[in-house]
Amino acid sequence: MGGTGGISYLWMLPVGLIAVVILSVIGVSFYLVFPEIRSSKNTCVPSKTEQAQTVVTSAETASKTVAGTSSDSNTCEVLLKTMTPEEQKVLNVLRAHKGKYLQKYIGKEAGLSRLKTHRIIARFAERGIVTAKQFGNTNEIALSDWVQSSEMQNANAPQNA
Question: Any idea of the CA torsion for 34, 110, 77, 160, to the nearest 10 degrees?
């Protein structure tokens, strides 16, 4: 009768191809939705020459830590280590404008949507990093005093060779 007697598995080829395409689309979508996966360069972290200048002996470090003015406690550096890349962008825009800027311009300079910028600033305000004040149809965002004062202390700290 001419039949091979076996079952044809040819249907598995298009099904497998469709599964691969679907998984690829999901992977690309995940990458675009969660950009934290991408690496970003911290602009607030001191360069290697700055790190070499701030090397302190263990006795000096211990005495400064007891006094509460450890040169290792760079607030900006600590904040950046706990932030997502988008949050780092917002903080760096604020730092570039001396700690005070309008929310709509922060989003544009950081390359973020209005909603994403609003959510980041809301998280910052919740953590006490920034304060927001109504300014027309936008908000004026200002770095909190403790963030600015710690940056000033770190900038004015004596550099030991």
Answer: 150
Q: Which neighbouring-strand residues pair with 102? A: 140
> How far apart, in whole angstroms, are the C-alpha atoms of residue 138 and residue 53?
42
In terms of average pLDDT, the best of 78-82, 139-143, 150-154 is 139-143
Q: Which amino acid is at 104?
A: K
Q: How far, in Å, CA of 69 to CA of 86, rounded? A: 30
Q: What is the CATH number of domain 75-156?
A: 1.10.10.10
Kindly report the backbone phi and psi dihedral angles of residue 141, in degrees, each rounded to the nearest multiple of 5, phi listed first.
Answer: -100, 130
pLDDT digits (tens, 9 = 90+) for 93-124: 998 998 899 998 999 999 999 999 999 999 99
Tell me, what DSSP letter sits at residue 8?
P
The answer to whether residues 112 and 90 touch, using CB atoms and an 8 Å cutoff, is: yes
Span 53-83, pLDDT tens digits: 333 333 343 334 344 444 434 666 777 788 8
CA 89 to chain centroid, in Å, comes to 6
